[in-house]
Predict the structure.
Amino acid sequence: MNKPEIIHNQDHNFMFDMKTGLVVPKRTQEVEVRIQAPCVRAKYTLTKRHAESGDVVQEVSFYNMVLDTWLNTLGGDSATGTNGFCVGGVQIGTGTTPPQFTDTALQALVATTTNNLAGWQSFNNSSAPNYVTTTIGNYRFAQGALNGTFTEMGLRRTADAQTISRTLIKDGAGNPIGFTVTPIEVLDVSVATENWPPLGDLTYSVNVTGSGTHDCISRACLANDSTYWSNAINFGYYPTYGKICTAGGPGDHWGYSGLIGGITGSPSGSGARVQSAGSLAYSNNSYQRESNIYCDSNNGNIAGDLPWRSVLVQFGGARFQIQFTPGIAKTNTKALSLSLMFSWGRKV
């Protein structure tokens, strides 16, 4: 039996068996694809009301600081809480030290409310030019729960009560203030989390010895559709923000014979569904997670043996399209595995 001729790629972990035409796994990955990073942030609106009349006494709005604990929550599995839902309540305190990315608690916690009045909802997309998807949760500190002057706010994580965002309470000009609540008042806190898709392309090349250079373009997909970009708090239809969706599930992944579309579009041409998808374990404080999609020789084949010119992938909180030039050959004599590195960050 002739020994298969294997062509190795030193940089991107490709191995092609030129005798059989199969893509042969090397460390379980053959094509390494990079994806640009979306960003998240959140905004508080504090509304103090008279408990009996419901009249608004005072209202302020301000952005918070997304802590490292939030970014790590977006990447992990078990730390996010039941069904990947990470926000377990709103905190209020009397600390005056400015927040730091490494904070894990309020400086001086006074009270926490888990009373979410209507669940997390309102998946609104701002449309052009930024296509920001906003998810809103409305919490209430009941009458008598607060009595004093407060200076800091935070969001609590479900699983372990760690703080995932922290901010000093601010006025309309962004200056720290004291916010007084008396026993005859209730305090409503609206938390609007924002998911910002990347607006530009990420371009790079993948060099494969014996196969040539594949130029790649990574671009956000359907950025104007909050269905695919609503998970900045790990809530709802999809799994953890940084985790790839299960193949055949609600997000799904496809290879296409055509080129990618614009930021509000998707790939063109004929398509074939990916056979399987999964994510590797998240490494704390990396703010990125590696995932893989795979098709054996019987799956992922586009009619007419057309090459994959592009691929569509769905993560928990982001949808992307990647273009290859020239296309990647995928037929019923070849298996194909794509390794995808997805990262995220805080919006500043």
Summary: The radius of gyration is 24 Å. Residues 1-29, 78-84 have pLDDT under 50 and may be disordered. The chain has two domains: 6-37+199-346, 39-196. Residues 68-75 form the longest helix (8 residues).
